[in-house]
DNA sequence: CGGTATCCTCTCTGATACTG
DNA sequence: CAGTATCAGAGAGGATACCG
């Protein structure tokens, strides 16, 4: 039986982590950019139900957290969004979260049978 | 340069994960139980600003997700909450999230200087 | 095209009182 | 002690119109 020991400051770090990728649209947006969408319009159209207001807000938050970068291409007059190298370093962590989510869902479903 | 590849169903798993430990009070509550608090009153008093309503609701959600278990001790007339073995299996993941949160915070602070 | 501004709704949260 | 019930406020999110 393992023992969990967490310090108070860790809780703050953990809440920060969750906040950065939390909310209704952050992950769908990340997913969309993963799939090659770079422009505002492309991202917006790739996510059903997402409004321009929420997209603008969430892109700004992700940018503030250095997970994506906004590059204004003056030549062609459009902005492009892409992942930062910083974001890419955390692919493994994301994968761990995904793996946990899948196991968790399976466990909950099993427990309801 | 690493490439991130995420499937659509992964996004759902990820949102589930975040939902389970998201919100304002889940992590402080987990932290409190970590520190040996087992009874409703003890947990409530250990977290400034937490109301009985939110504690009751969050304990129920954590219980629904099998992360904690509620044990009614009829002999002494009190309920006790404790982590499930299931929750303990994911200590490593929690630690990874904490580590990420700390590095992330340091990076953001550094970028603002 | 790539956003802002405005208004509205709805959920989450807070304060407080009450109960077995 | 361990909650539940009720009401009210704040903030996230949605619909739509407008702007450089």
Q: How would you concisely characterize the structure shown here?
A:
Chain A is mainly α and 113 residues long. Chain A is 61% helix and 11% strand. Chain A binds a DNA duplex (20 and 20 nucleotides) through helix 3 and helix 4.
Tell me about this structure.
Two copies of one chain form a homodimer. The first copy, chain A, is mainly alpha-helical and 113 residues long. Chain A has one domain (8-87): Winged helix-like DNA-binding domain superfamily/Winged helix DNA-binding domain (Arc Repressor Mutant, subunit A, Orthogonal Bundle). Chain A is built from six helices and two strands. Chain A has a two-stranded antiparallel ribbon with strand order 1-2. In chain A, strand 1 and strand 2 (78-83) form a beta hairpin. Chain A binds a DNA duplex (20 and 20 nucleotides) through helix 3 and helix 4.
Number of domains of chain A: 1
> How large is the count of helical segments of chain A?
6
CATH superfamily of chain A: Winged helix-like DNA-binding domain superfamily/Winged helix DNA-binding domain
* Main beta-sheet strand count, sense and barrel state of chain A: 2 strands, antiparallel
Name of the level-1 CATH class of chain A: Mainly Alpha
